[in-house]
Every structure is written in C-alpha cells, then in structure tokens.
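Appendix B, record 7
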Amino acid sequence: MSEELLAKLREAIINLDLDASKSLTKECLEKGIPPSEIVSKGIGIAMEEVGRKFESSEYFLSELIVAGEIGKEITQLLKPYLKESDIKKRGRVVIGTVKGDLHDIGKNIFGMMLEATGFEVIDLGTDVPAEAFVEAVRKNNPDIVGMSALLTVTMGEMENVINELKKAGLRDRVKIIVGGAPITEEFARKIGADAYGKDAVAGVEICKSWVEK
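Structure tokens (predicted):
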C-alpha cells in the first residue's frame, strides 16, 4: 500500500499537479508512511525524473520552476511532522547572486531543486558582496558555495569571492560551483571554481556527486 501511494505521489509531482501532490502527501501521512520516506522515496525520486525530462528537452524551464515549487510546498507541509533526525541532509549549500547583479530566477530555481533533493540551502539573495559569502562560509560551515551572475560586467566578482575565501583560509573547506547565462566551463576553470553548472539540473547533479563520494 505504501509503495502504491508513493508511486502515485511521484506521478503527481512529475505531472506537475500541485493539488494531487498535496492531497497524496496528506494521505501518505494518514496511512503512517514516515515523513522521511515521503521525502526520499516520493519527492526526491520525482525531482530526479523531472530533471531527466528537462535534460532531454521534454520539459522546459517553466515546468522546472513549477516542479521546484511543488517540491517546496510538500516539504513545508511535512515540516511539522519531521524531526531533525528524521532526514539525513545531503549537505549544506550557500548560494547567492554576486555583487552588482540583481537577477535571481536561475539562483532561485537552483535553490528549490537543491532543497527538493535533500540539501539544506542558505540563500544570501542578490547583489551579495564577497565579504558576505566569506562570512556565510565561516558561520555556516557549508559543503558547497554556489554563485550566480547574469551580467558579463558582474562575472569578475566571482573570482573576487574565491580570492577572498582564499585570504580568509576558507577556500579549501568548500567546493565552488558557478552558473548563469554568460558563464562558461572555461571561465569557471580560469577563476578557480570547482565546477560550472550549465543549468539548475546539471548543478544539482554536480552537488550530489560531491557529497555522495
């Protein structure tokens, strides 16, 4: 019965049906399925399938945003039933759009996808100065730092953040992933980032590979 319900929940999320996803989540709880199982075997697997559909161009950016929102809403629904010990977080990620850049759609999608697949996300917002990234790493001890930029004029700020992390002696404590429209694999290598995420799905897969090693 529990497997059948979880399969229905996964299907509802993949089909981007928010109402069905919420009612099936409530039904799972009523039937005594542990919240941690709903997250791992329901939301997590469904989001991975949504990611595959996006990668194969079956789904587009709008579907990705909707799926991320559904994952977030269900997680919020489960929060009162979850103890900290119930879910093993995959890892902790600090994200932000760099100083001088106010664009946040890509960053927000990345953050939603990370949360939906079990990461703890600390979102610093937009127009984030290098010192704020440094302070967030010092204070939160994340596994990963994700930086976004949509403007070519703000790309250089990513290198500044990496240099400031080096000066603070924190660079070796984190993996760094960068993304955004003007960013390339070559640019990421040049500034000393660990990876380039061409989109939110690819970025999440990279983050998962780092923490699962």
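Remarks on this record: Residues 68 and 113 are 6 Å apart (CA to CA). The chain has two domains: 2-86, 92-211.
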